Each structure stands twice: as structure tokens, then as C-alpha cells.
């Protein structure tokens, strides 16, 4: 059975953390595991220019790409890792020959994979129109605005849409690549590979547990003062009417101003702040769930668990196991 994986490297300088995704692909698909499956995958690193090519990728690093775009057309799976930041913001367009090769590979039956903002390349090639894709929550709004014909989901770690798969940022690349191994070679092989990598074979929850829910950076001054006060008094009963009065606004004006500044209603914003405080307490203290519920203004442990499951996607206990900082606990 042929298991050729082609990793398409777009030109341009990458951020240092983008090397992580290149390493993930190389580690999972480019490192033979004959005791797990033989043959394993064959990985080809492909670039826009004719092979072989040493491509600068920023911060003094170079990538040796031994293959050109023609190898995308014969691959079983084509993976596009992160692209340069200016390609995400559309300050610079991706090379048309790369986009044409991606489209041709897909038409030829290749399984297409976008890791983090590599999905921008799949979208620019017209491969995700009308589809649901995963995106890092930082880039989700930009992706949705640039390509309004796709459904962007920033709540999940990855999306498997059959012949097109996409992941959220950085470590979610591991989740998606292990999922590909699971699809191809079965759960037992994927689980054993995850064990060798000292990572869970499947992570609970989605991106919601990683989203920043802090006070907006530049709210209007009068609104910002009230929001900061609210964050410092989350353990007290807080109502929209009381916050509006503190801001010297009517509840209706307060609602409109807050929504314009944060994109959330007052009650949504307040719940996000309570959950953010609960997350911080779970990370940095050994307080029990009842106490954290009271300190965050969520009342009872039942309320905390319900909102965590609904918004964060994991239980408070699972979140604590993942993010607790033992040195800080007291």
C-alpha cells in the first residue's frame, strides 16, 4: 500500500514556532516505524522551485527541499504547514503555481491537509469552498473575512471533512497527524505512536480551553474602568443594571457599547470573565471546586462544571490536570 506524504512548503519567512509543525510532520511521517507498520510512510518535502532547493525560512534557518511541486501530484496525502504571516494578511499572495499544484493534487485524488494557517493556502486554491474548516482562534476572523464562502470553526482542534482535513494552531497539528495515522493504520498503531511521543492519543475538549478571555486591550476609557472594576469583583453579584449605573450609562447604551468593544453581550462577557478567573484559580491554586465556584461568582460547583462543559469543552478537573502549575500552587 502506497502511503506517500508530500509536505508543501510555501516561500517566505516563518515564525520560529512554525518550525514546530514542520517537525511534527517529519517526526510522524518521515521517521520509519517498521515494528508498527511496514512499509511506513514516505515523506517528500516539496517547494515551489525545482528540486533540490535550500530555502531560507527566517531567523537564520534554511530548509532543504529535495522535491518540486510535481511530487504533489503523485502523493496520497498533501500537507501544507503554516505559511508566512504576510500571506495570511494578504499583504503578499501565495505563488499561483503552488495553488495550481494543490488544486491539481486534490483533483487527482490526494487527501489535502492544512495545519494552522496552512489552511489559507487550501482556501486560496479553492479547495474548501462551502466546507467547514478548523482554524486557530487568533486567525479565525481573518480567514472568515478573506474567504466568506467557508465555515470557520475556532472551537475544535481539527476538522476531518473526508478528503480535506484542517487543524488549529501548533500542537493541534499533532492531534490531526495522529488522527491521519489512526485512519490509515488503526487505533492500536496510533496509540502506540502517541505513547512513544509521550503524548495523549486523543486530547479532551477543543480550543475553547486555550482562548484568551481577558479584558479588551483598548476599550473606551469610561467603559474600561468599569470592566476592570467588574473583573476585580467577580465574587460579588453583578448585574447589567449595576454596571451600567457605574458607567453612568443606561443599560441599553452599556449593552451597545460593550458589544461594540468586545463582540459580546454584557452577560456573555461577564460569564467569560468568571470562567477566565476560574481557569486561573484551577491553574495556580489547590482550592477545591466549591471554593473556586464562589470566588469566580459562579455560585456552585454544579454551575461551574456546567459552564465549563458548555464553553470550555472539558471538566474543571480535566482542565486542572492539563494546566496546573505545581510550583505556584498554595
From TrEMBL:
The keyword Ribonucleoprotein does not apply. Residues 224-322 form the HTH araC/xylS-type domain. SUPFAM superfamilies: Class I glutamine amidotransferase-like, Homeodomain-like. Keywords: DNA-binding, Transcription, Transcription regulation. It comes from the Bacteria. Gene3D superfamilies: 3.40.50.880, Homeodomain-like. InterPro entries: Class_I_gatase-like, DJ-1/PfpI, Homeodomain-like_sf, HTH_AraC, HTH_AraC-typ_CS, INH-QAR. The keyword DNA-binding applies. This is Helix-turn-helix domain-containing protein. It comes from Nocardia xishanensis.
Amino acid at each position: 500500500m502506497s502511503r506517500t506524504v508530500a509536505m508543501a512548503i510555501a516561500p517566505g519567512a516563518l515564525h520560529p514556532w512554525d518550525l514546530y509543525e514542520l517537525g511534527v510532520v517529519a517526526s510522524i511521517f518521515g521517521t520509519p516505524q517498521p515494528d508498527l507498520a511496514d512499509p511506513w510512510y514516505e515523506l517528500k518535502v516539496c517547494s515551489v522551485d525545482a528540486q533540490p532547493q535550500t530555502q531560507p525560512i527566517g531567523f537564520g534557518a534554511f530548509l532543504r527541499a529535495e522535491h518540486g511541486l510535481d511530487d504533489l501530484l503523485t502523493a496520497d496525502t498533501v500537507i501544507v504547514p503554516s505559511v508566512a504571516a504576510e500571506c495570511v494578511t494578504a499583504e503578499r499572495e501565495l505563488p499561483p503555481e503552488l495553488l495550481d499544484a494543490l488544486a491539481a493534487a486534490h483533483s487527482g485524488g490526494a487527501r489535502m491537509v492544512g495545519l494552522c494557517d496552512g489552511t489559507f493556502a487550501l482556501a486560496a486554491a479553492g479547495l474548501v469552498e462551502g466546507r467547514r474548516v478548523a482554524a486557530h482562534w487568533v486567525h479565525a476572523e481573518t480567514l472568515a473575512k478573506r474567504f466568506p464562502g467557508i465555515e470557520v470553526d475556532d472551537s475544535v482542534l481539527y476538522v476531518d471533512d473526508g478528503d480535506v482535513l484542517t487543524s488549529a494552531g501548533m500542537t493541534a497539528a499533532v492531534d490531526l497527524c495522529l488522527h491521519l495515522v489512526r485512519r490509515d493504520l488503526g487505533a492500536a498503531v496510533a496509540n502506540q505512536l502517541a505513547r512513544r511521543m509521550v503524548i495523549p492519543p486523543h486530547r479532551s475538549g477543543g480550543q475553547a480551553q486555550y482562548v484568551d478571555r481577558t479584558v479588551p486591550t483598548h476599550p473606551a476609557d469610561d467603559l474600561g474602568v468599569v470592566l476592570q472594576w467588574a473583573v476585580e469583583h467577580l465574587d460579588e453579584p453583578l448585574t447589567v443594571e449595576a454596571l451600567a449605573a457605574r458607567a453612568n450609562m443606561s443599560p441599553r447604551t452599556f449593552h451597545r457599547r460593550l458589544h461594540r468593544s468586545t463582540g459580546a453581550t454584557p452577560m456573555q462577557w461577564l460569564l467569560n470573565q468568571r470562567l477566565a478567573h476560574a481557569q486561573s484559580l484551577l491553574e495556580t491554586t489547590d482550592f477545591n471546586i466549591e471554593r473556586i465556584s464562589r470566588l469566580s461568582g459562579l455560585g456552585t460547583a454544579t454551575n461551574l462544571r456546567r459552564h465549563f462543559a458548555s464553553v470550555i469543552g472539558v471538566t474543571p478537573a480535566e482542565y486542572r490536570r492539563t494546566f496546573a502549575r505545581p510550583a505556584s500552587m498554595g
